[in-house]
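Sat 14:20. Reprocessing the chain from the morning session after the first attempt stalled halfway. Input below, unchanged.
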Amino acid sequence: MGSMAIDGLISGLKTTDLINQLMAVEAAPQDLLKTKVTSTQSLLTAYQSLNTSVSSLASYAKNSAKPTALDLFTATASAPSVSVTAGTGAAPGQLDLSVTSIAKAQVSVTAAMSEWPDSPATFTIVKADGSKVEITANSTSMSDIADAISASTAGVKAARVSAGKDGTTDLFRLQLTSAATGADGAFQVFRGTAADVTAGTATNVLAATGAATVTAASDASVTLWAGTPAEQVITSSTNSFADILPGVTINVTKVEASPVSVTVAKDSAALGKLAENLVANLTSVFNLIDSKSTVTKGTDSTGKPTVTAGVFIGNSTVREVTDRIMSAATSPVDGRSPSEIGISITKDGGVSYDSAKFQAALAKDPEGTLAMFQKVSARIGDAADSVSDQYNGTITQVITGQKSSLTSLNDQISSWDVRLAAQRAGLERTYSALEVSLSNLQAQSSWLTSQLAGLSSGSSSS
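Finished this time. Tokens:
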């Protein structure tokens, strides 16, 4: 129900103003609750931002602590025709090899003909392993023959190629190409069924006059330790060689008679970036805490100076988070300071990264440097996880408490809304009754006045 607007019709009082002033006094406790809601919400939002930042740090640090995270290598070859990729399981090493052949697919062409010489057009492709694929085309046209070969399981693709004319008759050849490179892609083509091939009565299409094998199927090969008693030839059906060196893939594109040097080394730049990003994540957490732990000066709408305290000032939970993560990042590892590998405390209480120091330590003692970095990363990951874990992390538990407090405060405000509405309604009824009473008195006064005036007139007439 809306409020009754009863500004003193009889009394002349500004009833609405009086009720508003009285209600302002009554609503003071609710206003305090609303202020508390605002501050609690600000603190909750700050905690949530911090928890997100610390959780991100935990994830990065734990990943950096994994042994595979440090499997970062550069792989190079001394010839541009050879490319090298280092993957999981790679290790530093160097190897010389000669590229003696490149993997090729078989390419053959048939003799020129106007159409397939047999009807029905049945023929058989014999693969390198001796298996036979019998094919029957829809017709004797060279187009249908090509389509049937390409659609079969023989692993051969066919294309019809114009071969001129025989008088007025168009002639065509079939170019046949193995789908895969390597010696295992070799094939033969025979007129007739698979049984005819087995019986030795089928005609070899590629041995006919005018037919040819343009490119023979062959494997790629590289030679190790050429010219020595340890000489070894390694072949591949493709131009890619895997695990000649552990975790390394070598791709070749042309023959290289001169030895090609393949080198695998630790990627110091990538390892340095790993350490740099870890410190950047640490700095992000500390900067967030600092930004909410400062006093901000300003002015209000009237120009008066204001001072606003950061929501984390004096906060014991935040101080505990800071101490725990800082200790994990900078405490000694087996008696050695992380500053030896470039991770140091700054003068203002933050953490910095010195790239030159990290690279120098990595060059001097690769294993020791990476072992220290892993241990620091693991400690940071554990510390950050303990405060940001989604179930029992320190910050998570505080966030849960803040949400509960916020719910309780909003419930109290709602209760006050009901109470204040009842009080306003009561005041409005009281002042309305006052106006009614004053109206009645005024009416009585007017009647008495008229009666007295009548008595006075009668006395004067006598």
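Residues 394-461 form the longest helix (68 residues).
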